[in-house]
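Page header: ASSEMBLY MODEL / two components / 461 residues total.
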Amino acid sequence: MLLHKSSDLFRLMKVCMLSEEKKFFVSYFHSPSNMTTGHDGEGEEFETLDDVWGEGGDGWYGKAGEYWNQQDASINGVLGGFGDLHPTDVAGSETFLNMVFSQLAVPRDRGADCGAGIGRITQFLLQKQLKQMDIVEPCANLIKTAQVELGKNFQGEFIQSPLQSWVPKMNTYNLLWHQWVLLYLTDKDCVDYLVRCRESLTPGGAICVKENVSMKSGQFLVDSDDNSVTRTLDQYKSLFTRAGLKIALQFKQPRWPSHLFPVLMFALVPIV
Amino acid sequence: MFRKHYDRGDLPITIRHGARCVLEWKADVDTIDMVHFLPLFVDGIREQQNPYRFVASEGAFQLLREGCPSRIFDCVDNLIYPLKNALDTHHSATIIMALRVIQILSSRSSEIAHKLVGHYKQLLPVFNIYKSRKRNIGDEIDFAQFKHDGRTMGETIEETLAILEATGGACAFAQIKRLVPTYESLHVE
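Prediction written out in full:
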């Protein structure tokens, strides 16, 4: 009798585990971005990201622009006061880039640093790895600093444009680097933008994305200071899929302080 | 082994002394017999004394960084034994060095990374002992974080595992999790 019961229990456990597993796979592969809920840290809850952005996205971008105009045009400023993390960040990106170049065989001719700020990543990492780098940045103040920081020998264009309206030239770039910038775009703009990026890639090219990702309890987070959204991993995956891109490499920023959001790096290639 | 070869003058290198010593190759790195020399240099990272230690580590890193991936691929099997010996020394600086070798090795090409998956059983168990060894400095600034030195062994191990997982293909994660059960990845939240 006892044995019978325990085997029942075992079967029940197995069923539970199986259904858990199934759930995991379902959310892993087909999670629509509006499955998750989020909050802004000040008590306001949102059902979906569309609630956050409201009807039109135009008002949404104004605040981010304002925020960056007020920030200091320095390494400490662009890292939001976490200037000490600059070496850790660059070292992590370098490890990841080495993987991208060796595993995916991305050519090293031309790249763009999208949402570059003061060109920090280009200056310390990307211009050593690629022959030509373009800087794309909407904020006049920051792009002026980038021109000074990168110096006269810098080969590459400075493009002053927000990403939601920037149209990269077709079949031009081997590598497009996005770091802490997709968090400002709304889902729709982000997908449209990634599609344009995909079309601007040369054969063998890749799009790199380095973003904060909310891992705890699967909830996205809205920052009302600069109007940015920390998306969940599933939300990012769904964005990439909708833009016709797949994740070729995925790497977590090592040595990152545990009290900050985990930072994930993705290398995206077009789905063939 | 490495010491004997160095003393006998079998290695195609010279040291240019100065404020910072530089290792110079007597032959072009592309023409060096990788299968013979790379395991030898990796074997030497266990050495505690200079010049052996400097020559071995510099030589190993230069060959790994500059050598052609397909030629490095040929000697992966021969690197496992020296790497395991280095990890078994339980000497923090030596272990960090071995971890750096593993990191560079697996990020050179996907063929090498995939081949390494089969050798996890030899390399990863030692990670369990040191994985939790992290420094807690409260809210102070860590000025040495860009140096990959012995004070951050736990972080270096996590970094190594993350690189192995990212490069090793589909079954890498399952293998890592089997050997280092406390490893947390992106796949399991």
